[in-house]
Amino acid sequence: MNNHLIHEKSRYLQQHAHNPVDWYPWGEAALNKAKIEGKPIFLSIGYSACHWCHVMAHESFEDEATASILNTHFVSIKVDREERPDLDRIYMNAVQAMTGSGGWPMSAFIAPDGTPFYGGTYFPKEPRHNMPAFSQLLLAIADAWQNRREELLQNAGQLVAALRRQSDFDDIGDAEIDPATVEQAYRTLSGRFDAQHGGWGGAPKFPQPMVLEFLLRYHHTTAASKALEMITRTLDTMARGGLYDQLGGGFHRYSVDAHWLVPHFEKMLYDSAQLARVYLHAWQVTDTPLFRAIVEETLGYVVREMKSPEDGFYATQDADTEGEEGKFFIWTPGEVRKVLGGPATRFLGLYGITDAGNFEGKNILTFNGTTEEREAITGARRLLFEARERRVRPGRDEKVLTSWNGLMLAAFAEAARVLGREDYLAVAQRNADFLLRELRNADGHLWHVWNAGEVKGAGLLEDYAYLIEGLLTLYQADFDPRWYRAAKALADVMLEHFSAEVGLYDTSDDAESLVLRPREVQDNAVPSGNAMAATALLKLARLSGESHYDEVARRSLVSMQALMGQHPLAFGQWLVALDSALAVPVEVAVIGELEAENTRAMLTAAQKGYRPHRLIAAGTRDVPPLLAHRKKVGDKATAYVCRGQTCHPPVVDSEELFL
CATH homologous superfamily for 11-166? Predict the structure, then answer.
C-alpha cells in the first residue's frame, strides 16, 4: 500500500509513504484537491528524529480506522519541517496562538487556501490526560467544517491578520542602538540563572548557545565575573551530563529535566555546530581543558558520523533504536564489566553507573570526576565506544540543509584557526566548495536541501545568512578571497530578494505564495534568519567598506531593541549582533604573501586570544577592500591596525603587534 509520498526523497516523508492515510506532499496537487472537493486539510508537520512523531504515526497514521476518517473527511498533507521551515513557522505560530504551546508533531487544520483554523501537537489514539482521542477530534472538526464553516473561517482570518502584525518590525523613526539594551538583557539573564545546575529555566531545559555567546562577549567587554560564572557553570554541567554523548561526542537535543541528566536522545547538526563554537570560545577565555576536549570530540563525531562522502553534513540522528528511545546510548553495570573487565569499577564510579540505573533501569552516562581522571580513562571510553558501535545504530536523516551546513562550516573554520587544526580547515574548505557547487544555481541563488544528488526548495533567509556567516568565518581562517567574494555575492542576492521596509523576510520575493509571507524574528533552536543576517552584514560592511550593509543591520537592530532587553533568552543572536554594532571595532590588514614565514608570524600574533570584535584581512591583493591601498613596508609583512576611526602606524615586527 503506497500513498502520494512514495516518490519523495525526505526520510521523514518516506517513513509515512506506506501508511493507510492517503498522504500528499505539500503542493498544488493536494491544495487543488482540497479546493475542488471542498474539504479541509489536515496538515501534519514533523521530522525524522522526532520521538513523538513516531509515536503518533504508530498509534494513528498506521491505524486503518483513523486513516478511513482522514481519507473521508480531509485532504491529508505531510511536511518535513526541515525541508520546509517556512511552512513550519507559519503554522507553528498559528498553533501557539491558538493553544498557547507548540511542538512536534504539529497537527494543524487549515482551509483549502491555507488559512489555519485549529491546531495542536500530539493527539493520542485513546482519550487521556485531558486530551481527546485523535479520531474524536477529527470527527468533531469534520462536523464543524460542515455546519459552522463560516464561523471557523472568520476566526481564522482574524488569526492570520494577528500573525501578520506579530511579524512586523517596530517603526524605528530616527532611533539609534542603545547600550542600555545590553545591560537590561544582562540583568535579566543574571536574575533568571540556575546557579545550581547552570542554564535557564526548569524542565525541559535547553542549551542556549546564542545566549552564552552574548555572555562571552559581555564578559570580554566588561570583565563581569558573574557573566563568566554563568558561562562556565552552564558549559561544565552540560558537558558532564547526559545531554552530552560521553562516549561518542556531540550533543543531544535537550534535557527533559532541569539538571541535564536525561536527554531527548536525537542529535541535531545545528546543536553540535553552535555548541562546539561556544565551547571553543570559552576555552579561549578560560583555558579549561574539558572545554577544548568537548570541541574536539564533538567535531570528531561530526566528521565520523555526519559527513557525507560529497562533503556535506547530514541533518540528524534519531532518538530511537529498535523502537526504544535512547537504547543505543544506555548501559548496565554488567555490560560495562563485560567490556572493561578489571578496570570497570573505577569507570562505574566516575560515570555514576549503578544497578538501579538512572533511566528506565539502565544508565545514561554522566561524568563526576576531574579532568585528569577523564584523561586517564580515555582507553576505557574508547573500548566502550567500540562495543557500542556493534549495537544497532540510530537512524540518520541524510539530507543536507544549506542553513545548518553554514553553521557547521563556521564551527570547523573557527576551530581550525584557533586550535591550529589543518584537518578541520580541510573539512571546512571542502564543505564550502560542496555548498557553493551543489546548492547554488547558475544565477547565484541558493537551494535549501540537497538529498542524494538532488536539490529541492528555494533558499530561505536562513540559508543565505548562515552560509554568509560560515564563508566569512572561513575567510578569517585561510584568507582565500573566493570565500569573501562568495559571501558578498550571496549578501547582494539576499538584500535584493528578501528585503522588507525594515529587516528581511524569511522567503524570497519570487517564492511560493503562502497564506502570509513569514518573518521569524525570535531565535529558536537556531538563530533567527534576520538576527544572523544582521550579524553577518556588520562583518561584511567592515571588510567591504560598503556602508549599506551596516545600515540594513542597524535598522533591524534598532527595531528589535525592546524585545532583546525584555526577553533575552529568545533574542540571543540579536544580542550578539547588537554587541558587534556597539563595540569599538578592531580591524587588521596584514599585507604579505600568505605562505611567507613573516606573514604567518604576523597572522599568528594578530589572531591570538578571544577577540570577538576583531576582523582580519590578509594577502597582497585589494580583495577584500580592507586591504586596498596598503603596501608592505621594506618588503616585510606589514600589519595595519585600526581601532574605531583611528588607524595606527604600520607594524612590521610581529612582536610589536598589540591588539
Answer: Glutaredoxin (3.40.30.10)
